[in-house]
């Protein structure tokens, strides 16, 4: 309650919101690519980790070409 009343005079919320909004405008479009890259890295990491921990299990080979 005290911090909320001080915010009326110090404008902490506004001081924090302005830099965040500027950062969002500058880097916002790249966030989807960052998340996609991190997701792909995580999937490959855990697939490799599973293959290492379970060498007797069958592990699929991934290929870039599509065959019908």
The low-confidence parts are none
How many alpha or pi helices? Answer: 3
| Helix and strand sequence | HHH
Ends distance: 65 Å
**Helix-and-strand structural type:** mainly alpha
Q: Roughly what fraction of the amino acids lie in strands?
A: under 5%
Shape: elongated
Mean pLDDT over the residues:
83
User: In which range does the helix fraction lie?
Assistant: over 70%
Largest sheet, if any?
A: none
How many runs of DSSP E, i.e. beta strands? 0
Task: Write a structural description.
By secondary structure, this protein is mostly helical. It is 71% helix and 0% strand. It has one domain. The chain has helices at 2-10, 12-27, 31-53. The longest helix is centred in the middle third of the chain and has 23 residues, at 31-53. The protein is elongated. The termini are far apart.
Q: SSE layout and pairings?
A:
Elements (H helix, E strand, L loop, with lengths): L1 H9 L1 H16 L3 H23 L15
Note the main attributes of this structure.
68 residues, mainly alpha, elongated
The gist of it:
This protein has 68 residues and is mainly α. It contains three helices and no strands.
């Amino acid at each position: 309650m005290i911090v909320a009343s001080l915010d009326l005079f110090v404008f902490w919320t506004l001081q924090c919101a302005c830099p965040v909004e500027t950062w969002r405008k500058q880097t916002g479009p790249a966030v989807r690519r960052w998340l996609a890259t991190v997701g792909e890295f995580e999937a490959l990491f855990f697939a490799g980790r599973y293959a290492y921990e379970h060498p007797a299990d069958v592990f699929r080979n991934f290929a870039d070409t599509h065959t019908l």
